[in-house]
Amino acid sequence: MLKHAFALIFTMILCGLKAQDAAEIRGVISNPTGEKVTLSKVEFANGKRTVRILDSAALDSQGRFVLRPVLDKLTTANFSDGNEVFEILLAPGDDMEMSLNTRYFDETLDFQGKGAEKNNALVSLYLIDEAFTTQLLSQLDLEEPDTTKMFLAYEKHSESFSALIRDYMEALPDFAAHGEKKLELEERKAVQLKNYVRNEIVFRKKIRALEGKQAIDFKGVNLDGDTVRLSEYKGKTIVVDFWATWCGPCKAEFPAYKELEEEYGEDVHFVSVGVFCDQKAWHKMATDEGFGNNMYLSKALEPQIGEYLVNFIPRYLVIDKDFKLLDAHAPRPSSGELQAFFGNN
Questions:
Q1: Is 286 exposed, middle or buried (0-12, 13-18, 19+ CB in 10 A)?
Q2: Using omega within 30 degrees of 0 as the cis cutoff, is the peptide bond preceding 92 cis?
Q3: Which of 6, 21, 84, 305 is the most exposed place for a label (fewest CB within 10 A)?
């Protein structure tokens, strides 16, 4: 009898310890884009990168979910709803309510409950930095961007932004370790941003020089395995989408791309072009997504588009009905700006 009593007490202690190691996140997603949510953590061991799933949960009919990851310490994890990913800080014992609307993902993200403050700080930092960076990089659209002015503006922003990170570190003990990483990242970003701006100016000058000229009549294969050329779509405005199966930002644009295809497909050819990925994986994803016009460029065929400098994706081109290049670096479908080209038929 005594032995059983000790066993029961030991079991209760273990359960108590496990409960302390758990965190709980309850939430609701308005306009969900997927059927489940996932918490994951990127880990590095022996020079290899792996992704460990901490927990996942299906959304119910109202978009609600509950996640209960087991943790042994404060952890930086990635929360994904299928299309979007954002960082979240979790500690053993956290008990949070989370809400978001996928129409304005980060802007609507909100946390309440135990552990919420450090995550609302993360959201605040992201939105501030995103707004400033977007405004700063918009100056690249000018004919002659003033890089000196841009770099001075960034230095001023970085100083204030780093001070805000330190304020959060002082006010929120759980944020301190993550804040140190944010400060280190901010130092590296200053160098990265300057390199990006310089390279982007060179890239845009080269790519804009192609506009108004005949588009490259590159060829690939369609879903049936037949050879198809881009010029087969001549006679209407053409929107070309270069994408890959592994590209998260590419996939995030799919819903907006398909909406445009459904609305303007009678007057505009939307040509979905798979690049830099496995053909079988491309075939499955292109089929599942249901794009109207599909091409795949194998590694051997990719040099055809070398002049377009497709060094990053997603990337969009707009070609007029006479097969002349209108825009070699067109806006993304989600921007709402592509429609301005659709009156050229």
A1: buried
A2: no
A3: 6
* Average confidence score pLDDT of the chain: 89
Averaged over 263-269, what is the pLDDT? 94
**Residue 30, number of CB atoms within 10 A of its CB:** 13
Tell me the torsion sign for CA atoms 265, 292, 231, 273.
Answer: positive
Does 35 score more than 90 pLDDT? no
- For the 22-103 domain, the top CATH level (class) is mainly beta
Q: Which residues contact 269 (CB under 8 A, 6 or more apart)?
A: 233, 236, 237, 238, 239, 293
pTM, rounded to two decimals? 0.68
Q: What is the tens place of the pLDDT at every residue in 72-115?
A: 899 999 998 876 788 999 999 999 999 998 877 778 899 999 99
* Domains 22-103 and 219-341 belong to one CATH topology: no
**Residue 7, pLDDT score:** 47
Superfamily of domain 219-341: Glutaredoxin (3.40.30.10)
Contact status, residue 233 vs residue 270, Cβ threshold 8 Å = no
Asked whether the predicted pLDDT for residue 8 surpasses 70, the reply is no
pLDDT at residue number 9 = 43
Q: Mapped to the 3 state alphabet, what secondary structure does the chain carry?
A: CHHHHHHHHHHHHHHHHHHHHECEEEEEEECCCCCEEEEEEEEEECCEEEEEEEEEEECCCCCEEEECCECCCCEEEEEECCCCEEEEEECCCCEEEEEEEHHHHHHHCEEEEECHHHHHHHHHHHHHHHHHHHHHHHHHHCCCCCHHHHHHHHHHHHHHHHHHHHHHHHHCHHHHHHHHHHHHHHHHHHHHHHHHHHHHHHHHHHHHCCCCCECCCCEEECCCCCEEEHHHHCCCEEEEEEECCCCHHHHHHHHHHHHHHHHHCCCEEEEEEECCCCHHHHHHHHHHHCCCEEEECCCCCHHHHHHHCCCCCCEEEEECCCCEEEECCCCCHHHCCHHHHCCCC
- Per domain, the residue ranges of the chain are 22-103, 115-209, 219-341
